[in-house]
Amino acid sequence: MNFSRVGTGGNLVLAGVLLMLLGDFMFSLNDAMGKWLVASFSVGQILVVRSFGSFIVLAPMIARQGSDALFRLERPPLQILRIVMTTADVALFYAAVAYLPLADVITFYMAGPIYVAAISHFFLGERIGWRRWLAVFVGFIGVLIALRPSAAMFSWPSIFGLGGSLGFALTLVLGRRLRQTSDATLVAWQTLGALATGLVLSIGNWRSASTLDFAAMLALGAIAGGAHLLITRSLKLAPASLLAPLQYSLLIWAIALGFLFFGDIPDAQIIVGSIIIVLAGLFIFHRKNLTDGIPKDAVAKDGH
């Protein structure tokens, strides 16, 4: 056995996990800022200015790889589908948080790992055994305990949140399938998709913004662009089915930022839910590492 190769592979997976966690933290900042901005500006206007902010992050990367790389795309149909899914994810998220508490919308997004696990099983051939399936569902129960969804679960805003979470889950899976495409190219095209959609939605819904508001929308794009790059890279280093449950860390970041910026102190129910989520994620990570060290012919067909 080549132990150096095994060690290198393990380091890449660990790097993917760390990049996903950092990307999730940046997305939590994006979520809080987005809810603050959407209270005063239309979804379309935010998408437009946010896209320019993303290009501030992307421009050096695009210049370094050459603009011609943007047009050398693998699997064009999947690229188009990914652009549609990422745009739906962002637009529907902002549409939902305009009417619902942020915690309610994030509850829908916490179901993303369940969708990803199922999709990855069939679409990527990443076989998930019953133990990790169970851990994903236990983690989702923890989310429900912590966030206590409101009674308005089947309103249009709730449907927006559900649709956005499905778009986000498909984006994760497609990012793994398109891992031969550079990070800058993937994020550049999804940003162009958001910009085009924002221009259409902002027709008749554009209002003047203060310097602070405009800077906040640009920062929103820069933070989101950086987070997308981190998550896109992480999906090239580790399997989507392993990284998906780490999305539960968004709840941990939300609790920390809520206390830091708004003085919110989590109650016992949120703490219990958070512990369940973290333990479920750690179990999934443990099972992945354990089964990677076991010969495939020694693993039962249904038992990862």
From TrEMBL:
InterPro entries: Bacilysin_exporter_BacE_put, EamA_dom, EmrE-like
Keywords: Membrane, Transmembrane, Transmembrane helix
PANTHER family on file: ACYL-MALONYL CONDENSING ENZYME-RELATED, BLR4310 PROTEIN
Domain EamA: 15-147, 158-284
Domain of life: Bacteria
Segments passing through the bilayer: 12-30, 36-59, 80-100, 106-125, 132-148, 154-174, 186-206, 212-231, 243-262, 268-286
Protein name, per record: S-adenosylmethionine uptake transporter
A Pfam match: EamA
GO cellular component terms, A-Z: membrane
